[in-house]
Write a structure and sequence with these properties.
The protein is an alpha/beta fold. The chain is built from 12 helices and 21 strands. The protein binds MU-OXO-diiron.
Length: about 425
């Protein structure tokens, strides 16, 4: 039984004079790219733009939906009319039907971003590697109407770009401003409330690249956009600017910068018998002694991952403390660390500590994870067997102080008291 709004229709849908949606619907998809939940399925949107001198196809669809895609093309154009194929993004959900389209329209010129070349090579495996690499400002004249390109790298791959049809004010935006939400009514003013899906998609696809989102918005907000035509989800024809504005809101610091000139250091810990907690408290106290740092202390066991991730996104540094159990850090620590892939943490400062019984691998494992996320880990972490001694607690205090000095740029200028080296 078809659910309301997701019935498959055969034909293309006109979104503006001479501009058609020729995408496909995947209403039963429940997980996208292994990790994203898709309660409403998704769509793979593609578009056709007709000019006086021929037709341009913008993006294709996932390979196993090719039949629907070609049927929709055939409902509005002949293959020999296609003179341009534009791929805003090379991921297979948008490029999967390209090889077949090139066979059916061999005369068509292929336009991609220069950074898409290695991906095109991986897709076509030498079948046909002729393409035109386009840059911001390049354009293709279709006769009476022009497609203009601009690079929007890392929304959300290096190759991503947008295509602009000025005479209709249509931005073909690729994954940006998309969402996994399938509804045959197609347009944002007809499909019901999909805001949760829009925000969820942003959080999982665009959030790690929010600095790039803000750069792209500088270009996009200058355009007189009447329709945003993304590669997933509804076509945004009703007040499209509010979706640009929503991206700006979502890409701006969620918690605001309320700490003035202070650097922010977060100390996370989890502790079975209080030892790792005691170490955390000494590290926090040492960091405070150094000055110039706002230090916050959190017990991972008592918190939820999502707000911790928000905090980390805005912080300058984090240290993570875990006991070692069976040669590993404990699961709540990994739950937190595995969630950091959804935000940008590169170049933040990191460190690790923890108490242990036998071998104490957790500290090194956490450090490896932080380095893998491209954090700077300037100091070897602190470990203590079972209950930390006074000496070990002093090491923790010193660790916190030195980390804060690194963070505030004071470490290089430290005056070394030679007496302490004796
Ligand atoms: Fe929808 Fe990045 O592919």
């Amino acid at each position: 039984m078809n659910r309301p709004g997701v019935a498959q229709s055969e034909g293309a849908v006109e979104i503006a004079p001479g501009v058609h949606w020729i995408g496909v619907r995947d209403p039963d998809l429940r997980t996208f790219d292994i990790i994203l939940k898709t309660a409403n399925g998704t769509t793979y949107n593609a578009y056709a733009v007709r000019g006086n001198d021929g037709v341009a196809i913008i993006d294709t669809v996932k390979a196993n939906f090719a039949d629907d895609f070609f049927r929709r093309i055939e409902s509005i154009a002949r293959y020999d009319e296609i003179r341009a194929i534009v791929l805003n993004h090379m991921e297979p959900d948008h490029s999967g039907s390209l090889p077949e389209l090139l066979k059916r329209a061999p005369q068509a010129k292929l336009y991609i971003s220069g950074r898409g070349r290695p991906m095109l090579k991986g897709l076509l495996h030498g079948d046909r590697l002729e393409f035109t690499a386009v840059h911001t400002g390049d354009s293709v004249d279709l006769g009476g109407r022009t497609l203009r390109f601009f690079q929007t790298p890392f929304l959300h791959w290096p190759d991503t770009m947008c295509t602009w049809l000025a005479d209709e004010g249509i931005l073909f935006s690729g994954d940006a401003f998309g969402c996994h939400y399938c509804d045959a009514r197609l347009f944002n003013d007809a499909v019901g409330d999909f805001r949760f899906s829009f925000d969820y998609y942003y959080a999982h696809i665009m959030r790690p690249f929010r600095a790039h989102v803000l750069e792209a918005l500088e270009q996009i907000e200058a355009l007189p956009v009447r329709i945003v035509a993304p590669s997933h989800g509804p076509v945004l024809r009703d007040r499209p600017q509010r979706y640009l504005q929503r991206y700006r809101e979502l890409s701006s610091p969620a918690l605001g910068k309320e700490t003035g000139e202070l650097k922010t250091l977060l100390v996370f810990y989890i502790s079975a018998y209080g030892s790792t907690r005691a170490m955390a408290e000494e590290i926090a106290a040492g960091a405070e002694e150094a000055g110039g740092v706002l230090v916050s202390l959190y017990d991972i066991e008592g918190g939820e991952v999502a707000p911790f991730v928000d905090l980390i996104e805005e912080a300058d540094a984090l240290v993570v403390g875990s006991p070692t159990i069976n040669g590993d850090a404990v699961k709540p620590v990994w739950d937190l660390l595995s969630s950091l892939a959804t935000i940008q943490v590169r170049s933040k400062m990191g460190g690790a500590f923890g108490s242990y019984g036998w071998t104490g691998e957790a500290v090194g494992m956490i450090e490896d994870r932080l380095r893998g996320l491209k954090l700077r880990v300037p100091m070897k972490g602190v470990r203590a067997r079972l209950i930390p001694t006074e000496v070990e607690l002093a090491e923790c205090r010193s660790f916190g102080r030195d980390l804060a000095l690194h963070l505030t740029g004071q470490m290089e200028n430290q005056i070394i008291d030679m007496a302490t080296l004796a």
